[in-house]
Amino acid sequence: MARFLKNREASNGRAPGEIVFIGEKKVQEATLKMIDYDNENLLEQEIIDLNESIAFKDTPTVTWLNINGLHDTDLIKKIGDGFDLHALVLDDIVNTSQRPSMEEYDDYLFMVLKMMYYDEAAKQIKSEQLSIVLGKTFLITFQERPGDIFDPVRDRIRKQKGRIRKVGIDYLAYALLDIIVENYIMLIERFGEQIEDIENEILENPSQKILSKIQKYKQEMNYLRKTIRPVREFILQLSRLDSDLLQDHTLPFIKDLLDLSTQAVEGIDSYREMLSDHMDIYNTGINNRLNEIMKVLTIFSAIFIPLTFIAGIYGTNFENLPELHFRYSYFIFWGVLVSVAVFMLRFFKRKKWL
Amino acid sequence: MARFLKNREASNGRAPGEIVFIGEKKVQEATLKMIDYDNENLLEQEIIDLNESIAFKDTPTVTWLNINGLHDTDLIKKIGDGFDLHALVLDDIVNTSQRPSMEEYDDYLFMVLKMMYYDEAAKQIKSEQLSIVLGKTFLITFQERPGDIFDPVRDRIRKQKGRIRKVGIDYLAYALLDIIVENYIMLIERFGEQIEDIENEILENPSQKILSKIQKYKQEMNYLRKTIRPVREFILQLSRLDSDLLQDHTLPFIKDLLDLSTQAVEGIDSYREMLSDHMDIYNTGINNRLNEIMKVLTIFSAIFIPLTFIAGIYGTNFENLPELHFRYSYFIFWGVLVSVAVFMLRFFKRKKWL
Amino acid sequence: MARFLKNREASNGRAPGEIVFIGEKKVQEATLKMIDYDNENLLEQEIIDLNESIAFKDTPTVTWLNINGLHDTDLIKKIGDGFDLHALVLDDIVNTSQRPSMEEYDDYLFMVLKMMYYDEAAKQIKSEQLSIVLGKTFLITFQERPGDIFDPVRDRIRKQKGRIRKVGIDYLAYALLDIIVENYIMLIERFGEQIEDIENEILENPSQKILSKIQKYKQEMNYLRKTIRPVREFILQLSRLDSDLLQDHTLPFIKDLLDLSTQAVEGIDSYREMLSDHMDIYNTGINNRLNEIMKVLTIFSAIFIPLTFIAGIYGTNFENLPELHFRYSYFIFWGVLVSVAVFMLRFFKRKKWL
Amino acid sequence: MARFLKNREASNGRAPGEIVFIGEKKVQEATLKMIDYDNENLLEQEIIDLNESIAFKDTPTVTWLNINGLHDTDLIKKIGDGFDLHALVLDDIVNTSQRPSMEEYDDYLFMVLKMMYYDEAAKQIKSEQLSIVLGKTFLITFQERPGDIFDPVRDRIRKQKGRIRKVGIDYLAYALLDIIVENYIMLIERFGEQIEDIENEILENPSQKILSKIQKYKQEMNYLRKTIRPVREFILQLSRLDSDLLQDHTLPFIKDLLDLSTQAVEGIDSYREMLSDHMDIYNTGINNRLNEIMKVLTIFSAIFIPLTFIAGIYGTNFENLPELHFRYSYFIFWGVLVSVAVFMLRFFKRKKWL
Amino acid sequence: MARFLKNREASNGRAPGEIVFIGEKKVQEATLKMIDYDNENLLEQEIIDLNESIAFKDTPTVTWLNINGLHDTDLIKKIGDGFDLHALVLDDIVNTSQRPSMEEYDDYLFMVLKMMYYDEAAKQIKSEQLSIVLGKTFLITFQERPGDIFDPVRDRIRKQKGRIRKVGIDYLAYALLDIIVENYIMLIERFGEQIEDIENEILENPSQKILSKIQKYKQEMNYLRKTIRPVREFILQLSRLDSDLLQDHTLPFIKDLLDLSTQAVEGIDSYREMLSDHMDIYNTGINNRLNEIMKVLTIFSAIFIPLTFIAGIYGTNFENLPELHFRYSYFIFWGVLVSVAVFMLRFFKRKKWL
Q1: Model-level pTM?
Q2: What is the per-residue pLDDT across E71-113, written as a single tens digit (0 to 9) for each?
Q3: Which pick of A49, A113, A185, C201 has the fewest CB atoms within 10 Å?
C-alpha cells in the first residue's frame, strides 16, 4: 500500500460529509474517557453512556473528552450531534488519510494532526491521526487507539502541577499540541543521531548496505517532513488567529510552540541535506574504489606484460637466434627483466600510484 | 505530437473569441442531457431541441445541462447565445488545450479543468477537458465524450442521498469538482504504489528496463503535476472568492476540497522526489556493478599474469639455463606458482576484495 | 557575440535618453504604413511624409502606424516629437537589447517585447524587437524589419472579421500581443515535439551527436524562457492596470492572454525539466555501455588468461617434466582446458553476466 | 549526540513554563556581575545578594546585569520574580537548545541567540546560548559560562568611548548584538579563507583526505547557517518593531546590524555554493584520473599483446615452419615487432592519448 | 585573503559609528574635486581647503563633490561634520567591505555600491567601493582611488549635452548609477562571450585546463552576482521611494535603470546556468572518452588473447602432439588464427564498437 497517500477507495462515490471510516481498524471497541475540572474540582471517569458527557458540554468547567477508536461511525455521529459538529468535521475525523490542518467554525476550532512513532517491527515511522475539537468549555480528542502520550498532561491536571488547572481550556489544547510536537522533535533527534553516525562508515566502507540505510533514512525524513510541515503551518495560523476561543495569555505559549515546530522542520531539512551529502560521499567513495582497483590492475599488467613479451622472444624457435648461445645470456636476460620491472615501478612511483 | 503543449496550428490567425475547435474529435455526435431538480421535484431527460433546456434557465430550480462532444461548434454557439456566455468562454470550451483556470464573469463563474485517466493501450495518462459554467440557477458541463465519472453525483441526486437536493447549485458544482479531485488522488496513489514498489528491484537488479520505467513514471508525474497544480490554484481562488454565486455554507466544503487538492499536489511532489532518489540509487547500483566486474577482472589478471610470466621464462630456449636440468625443478616450479597464487589471494583478501 | 546579452558598447558614455541605435541594421530603409479605421471607414496607406500621419493622431478613429526599421534615428525622433513620446521611450525603441517590459506614461502605454522565430540557417532561435505605443486614439508599432506576422490582424480589420472594427484601440493592441504569444507557443511546441522524440534515441544509442542536440535544445529553451518570462510578467501587470487606456470589456481578453502566456512559460519549464531528465538518461546510458564493454573484456580475459597459463606450463623446457611423456597427455591437456573454460562460463552465467 | 538537534529528553513530560535546565553544565557556580551607569556615574560590581541588583531595576540609570551559568534554576527563578519575567522566558533561558528568536512582552523584549566559536579540540564549531532581556531601564544577559566577548563593550562604557554612555539602554543592547554578529562574520571569514584555499589542492591531488575536509566544511557551514539565519530574521523583525523600548536614533544602528547579518548569511551561502563546486571538481578530478590510468593500461596492453602474440607464433613447435630456418628470420622478426610497436604508438599519438 | 568576505579584524572591538578605515590603501593622498553648476553657470575646481566646498552646500546650484581615497579618516570626519552626515554613514564610507545598500536619512539619501573591473594581472574581477550621498543641493561621491568612469558625465555637464544641466541633482545621481550599471553589463557580456565560446572546446577536447576555466568563470559569476543583486534591490527600493529628494520626472529614468539592473542579474543567472550545463557536458565528455579507451582496450585484448592462447598450445612440448607433424599444420594454424580474428572483428562490428 502506498504510504505517502492512503487508500481512498472506500470513499469513492461517497457524498461529501457522509461519514465513512477510511483507515485500518486498530482497536476492537471504541472507548471514551472524560476529565472535567476547574481550579478546585476534578472529575475523571470512563464514559459508557454518551449523554453523561454531553451534559457537561455547557458547564463552565473544562471538559476533556477523549475517544479511542474511530471505526464506530455511529458513535462519532452521536458525538457530532451532541456537540453540534459540522458534517465535514466528522468526515475528517474518521478519514485517517487527512492532511494536518486547522479549520475555524463558529463555536469551535477543529484541528487534525498526526502522532508519529517508530514501529520497530515494520522498521518504519508510522502515524496515527489525532483530531482535536476545541470549544468554549469542552475539548474533544479523537485517537485511533488508546495511547499513553497524553498521560503527562493528565498527571499535571491531577496533581495541579504548573498552571494547567488555573487557566482556560485553550491552555489544555496547547499542552496537548506541545506534547505532540516535542515527540516529533525526539523522533527527529533519534534519527538524526543515527544519520550523523553513519558518516564515518561511509567514508571507510561504502557498502551496499549503507546505501540502503541512507535511502531508508531519506524516505523516513521525507515522510516526517510531509507530516510535520503542515502542522507547523497551522500552528502559525493559530498564532495569528483572532478568536474568542484563544485567550491573550495563551498566545506566548502558542508562539513558543511555533518556534518548536519551526525547529522540528528545520531539523528535518538539515538531516535531509546531510543525507544528500552522505549520498554524494558514498558515490565518490565508490569511484575512489574503482580507481584503486584499476590502479592495481594497471600496475600488474604494465609490469608483467612487457616481461612476458621478452620471455616470449627467447621462447621462439628460430634456428639462428644468436643470444641463446652465449654463456651468460640467461643471466643477462634476468638482468633485463629486473631492469624493466624496476623502471616500471619507478614510473608508477613518479605518477604517485604507489 | 507534443503531449505537454497541444497543437494550436488550427487557431493560427484566428480572431480571439472566434470559436474554432482545437483537439481530437472523440465522439460522432454531441449529446445533451439535462437534470432539473429542487428539494421536491426531479426531471431528467435527453435534450434534442436546445430551446427546451434554455427555458429552464431562469426557473429557480437547479438546472444541470451536460454536453458530451465539443466539435459541434454550432451547438456550442447556440448554447452560448441561449445562456448569454462570453465569446471567450465559448472559445475556451472548444479549445481542448486550455490551461485549468477559473474566470469570474458578471452572472456566472467559468471553470476549465481536466479529467485524467490512465489509457491502458497507450500506457500513458490521458486527459480530457471539462468546462463548467456555474450560473445562479443553472450549471452547464462540457465534456469531450460521454463518461460515467459523474454518475455517483447523479445517483445522489436521484436518491436524495446526502444534502445535495437540499442545498443550492454551488454545492452541485462542488460535488463535481470533488469527484474530479478524488479521481486525481486515486490516480496518483495508483502510480505511487508502483513507484514505492520498484525500489527493491532497483537495488537488486538495476536493468535498462527499470531505467525506462523510472523515466516513464517521472514523465507521468510531471504531466499530472502540470495539470493538477493549476486546479489547486483555482480552488484556492474559489475559496477566497467573494461572489453571490457561492453561498456561505458551501465554503467549508470548498476549503475541504482545497485540502484535498493540496494533498494531491504534495503527493505528486513526494513521488517525484522518490523517483529522483530511485534514479540516484540506480546510478549508484550501476557503479557498484562496474566495481564488481573490475574486481573480478583484476583478481584474475593479477593472479595469472605473473604465473604466465614465470612459465614463459622456463619456456625460453637459452642453451645455458641451469634450472631446467635439476631433477626437481619442475616441482619446485609448481611450488613457486602456487606460492605466488596464494600470496596474491591473500593480498586481495586483505584488501577485502574477496 | 554573446546572444544572451547584446553588445552595448555603442551606448557607452551616451546620455540616457539620447537616441543611439543599438543592434544590427536589418533593412536598407525604414518604411511606414498606416491603417486608420472606425466601424464604418477604413484607410490604409504607405506613409512618405510623416506629418500626414501625425494629422490623424487626435482623430477619434483608430490610427495604427507601423514602422519597419529602427536605424533611422532621425525618423524615430520625428515620430517622438509628433506623438509626444518621452525621450526614454525613443531610447528603448532603438536599443534592440531591451528587456521586455511595460511602462505607463501619462497619455500612453509603452511596451517592448520580442518576436521570436527559428533561423534555419543559423540553427538558432533569433529574436526581433517589437515596441508598441498605445495611445488613446493611436497605436504605433516599431519592428526591426518588415514581417508578415501581423497580416492576419490586418486581414481581420479589412474584412471586418470578428469584433475588431467595433471595439476600441486597446483591443487592437491585445490582438497584436495575442499573435505574438500564439507564436511563442507554436515555437515551443515545435521544439517540444523534437524533445519528446529524442527520448527513445537516447536509450538506444547514446551518441555524442545526441548530447549536442540535448545541449542545443537546452540553450534554445533557456533563451526562450529568458525572453518570454518578462512578457508574461508585463501581461500580468497589464491585467491589473487601472488605466483609461484599457476598457473594461477588453479585460477578459487580457486575462485570456495571461493564461496563454502562463501556458507558454509552463511549457518551457516542462521541456527544460524533460531535457534535464534526458541528460540523466544519457549519462546512465553511457555508464550502462561502459559496464557492457567491461563485461566483454572481463569474460574474455578471465577465460583465456588461465588457459594461456596452462599452455605456458607445458611449453617450459624442464628436463624432467613427466606429463609431457604420457601418451594421452595432450588430449588430457585439452580436456583440462575445456573444463576450465566451461567452469568460467558457468561462473559468469551464475553472475548473470551472460 | 545529535549536534543539529539537542537532546530534549529531560524536558519530556514537563509542564510548559516549568523551568528545567536542558544542556551541559559548563561552570561550577553561576556568577552575577552588574554595571550601572548614566552619562556621569558608573558603578560596577560582583553581585552576591540578588536583591542588591533588583533595587536598581527602576532607577533611571542603565542597569546591565550579566549572569554566567544557567544550571542554577533557583537563581534564574529569583531573577524572574525580581524582574517580572514571564515563565516562558525563564524556560527558554535555561533550555540551551532554543532556536534564536525574539519575543515582545509588555515591558521588555526577550532575545535568544547563539555565540559561536571554533573548538580547536573537537575541531568543530560549538555554540553557547545567550539570552538578552531588554527592559526600559535594565538589561539582563544570560550566558552559559563566563566569556570575554563583551569586554570591548565594558571597556567603552568605562572609558566613555563613543556614544555608549550618552544614549539609552537600547544602544547597549545593539552594541552587544553587534559584537555577536561581528564574531559570526569573523568565523565565517576564517573558514572562507580555508575553503577558497583548498581549490588548487583539489585540482592537483584529489585525495580522500580532501574529500573529508570538504565534507567537514560543508557541515560546519550548514551549522553556521542554521544558527545565523534565524538571528538575521529577528534583527529584521527588530528593525521593523514599533516599541517604546527602541528609540528612533537607535534605528539606523539596527539597520546597519541588519546589513551586517545579511552579509553573514550571504557569505555562508557563497561558501556553501563554493564547496558544492569543490565537490564537483573533486569528482571530475577522480574521473580524469581514472581516464589517465586506463590510458596507461590500454597503451601498454595494446602494444605488447600483439607483440607477445607474434613471439608466441614462432614459439610453436610445428615441424614444418619455414620462417624458422631462414638465416635472417630472427632479425626480420625483430623488425616486425618494432614496426608494430611504432605503428601502435603512432595510432595513440593520433588519438592524442600520448 | 577571503575575497567573498573582506577582513574585518581591524574593526574588532571598535565602537559602532567610530570611523576606522577597513580595506586596502589604494592612493597616497586623498584628493577632492568639486563641480558646481546650474543651467547657466559651471564651476569646476580641485579642492584644497574643505571649507571652500562646504560653503556651496546650501546654494541652490548643484554641487558635486568627489573624494578619491578613503584612508584619510580625518578628512572624512570633516566632510561628515561639514555636511551633517550621520556617524554610521561615515563608518560605512570607510569600511570597504560594505554590502551594497541604500539608507534614507532625514536630509539625504546614502547609497553604497561597488564599481567592478577586470584586473588583468590578478585575472580576477576586482571591486572598488563607491559611496554616494545625495542631498537637496549637493551630491558627494567617495571612491577608493581616482578613476575615469564618471568622465562621460562630467563631459555632458561641461558640454551641456542632454538634459543634465537643465534638471535637478537627482538626475545627476541617476546618471552616475546608470554608468555603474552599464559597466556591470559590459563586464557580464565580456565574460558571457567567453563562456558561450568554450562550449565547442568542451565537446571536442575536455581537458583539465577547460575544467579550471569553467570553475574560474563560475566563481567570477558568483562574485558578480553577490555584488550586483543587492544593487538591483536598492534600485528597486529607490524606484518606490517616496521622498522630496527624488523629483517626479526622474522616476522614469530610475525605472529604466531598474530594468537595466534586472537585465544584469538575469544575464548573470543565464551564464551561471550555462556554466553548470558546461560542467555537465564536460563530465559526460570524460565518460565518453573513458568508453572509447575501454573499447580500444577490449577490442585489442579480445582479439589477441585467444590468438596468443592458440599459439601457446602449439608451443607446448608434449611428446605426442599429432598436429605438429602434419605438413600443412602451420598454414592451417594461420588459417585458424585469421578466422578467429575475423570473427571477433565481426562481433565488435555487430556491437557497433567499430
Answers
A1: 0.87
A2: 888 999 999 999 999 999 999 999 988 899 999 998 999 999 9
A3: A49
| Residues C96-106, mean pLDDT to the nearest whole number | 92
Split at pLDDT 50, 70, 90, the class of D268 is very high
Alpha-carbon B27 to chain mean position: 24
Least Cα separation, residue E157 to chain D (angstroms)? 34
Q: Name the amino acid, one letter, at C302.
A: A
Query: How far E39 CA lies from chain D's nearest CA (Å)?
Result: 36
Q: Which of C139, C46, C29 is nearest to C85 (CA)?
A: C139
**Separation CA D161–CA A60 (nearest Å):** 61
According to CATH, where is 1.20.58.340 located in chain A?
285-350
A309 pLDDT more than 80:
yes
When scoring A293, A303, A316 by the number of chain B Cβ atoms within 10 A, the one with the most, hence best to mutate, is A293
Of A105, A279, A308, the CB nearest to B312: A308
The SS3 call for residue E97 is coil
Strands A31-37 and A42-47: antiparallel
Secondary-structure class of domain C285-350 per CATH: mainly alpha
Q: Give the torsion through C-alpha atoms of B300, B303, B308, B310, to 10 deg.
A: 180
pLDDT, position B1: 44
Helices (H), D19-142: 50-54, 73-82, 87-94
Q: Which member of B15, B226, B333 has the closest CB to residue C162?
A: B15
Phi, psi dihedral angles at A160 (to 5 degrees): 55, 35
Q: Do the chains contact at C284 and B287, CB–CB below 8 Å?
A: no
Alpha-carbon torsion A11, A17, A23, A25, what sign? negative
Q: Assess contact for E47 and E34: CB atoms under 8 A.
A: yes
Query: In the predicted model, what is the mean pLDDT of residues B231-253?
Result: 92
Nearest to E113 by CA among E94, E131, E139, E134: E131
Q: Give the largest Cα separation in chain B, rounded.
A: 121
Residue of B268, B293, B298, B350 to mutate, testing the A interface (most A Cβ within 10 Å of its Cβ): B298
Q: In what order do the strands lie in the sheet with C109-119?
A: C42-47, C31-37, C62-68, C138-143, C124-134, C109-119, C101-104
* Whole-number Å distance between alpha carbons of A319 and A333: 19
User: Residues B212-236, buried b or exposed e (16+ Cβ, 10 A)?
Assistant: ebbbebbbbbbbbbbbbbbbbebbb
The answer to whether B43 and C182 have CB atoms below 8 angstroms apart is: no
Start-end of CATH 3.30.460.20 domains in chain A = 9-284
Check D203 against E211: CB less than 8 A apart.
Answer: yes
How many residue contacts between A and D have a Cβ separation below 8 Å? 170
CB atoms within 10 A of CB C199: 17
Q: State which fold the C1-160 domain adopts.
A: Beta Polymerase; domain 2 (3.30.460)
Nearest CA in chain C to E310: C308
pLDDT digits (tens, 9 = 90+) for D202-211: 877 788 889 9
Q: In this structure, are residues C237 and C102 in contact, taking their beta carbons and an 8 Å threshold? A: yes
Decide the pairing of beta strands D138-143 and D62-68. Answer: parallel
Structural contact between residues C36 and C63, judged by C-beta atoms closer than 8 angstroms: yes
Neighbouring C-alpha atoms within 13 Å toward the C-beta of C78: 14
Contact A303, A338 (CB under 8 A): no
In terms of CATH, what superfamily is B9-284? CorA soluble domain-like (3.30.460.20)
Instruction: Name chain C contacts of E263, Cβ cutoff 8 Å.
Output: 5, 99
Q: Mutate one of D1, D5, D86, D297 to test the A interface: name it (highest A CB count within 10 A).
A: D5
The complex scores an ipTM of 0.83
Name chain A's partners: 3 or more CB pairs within 8 A.
B, D
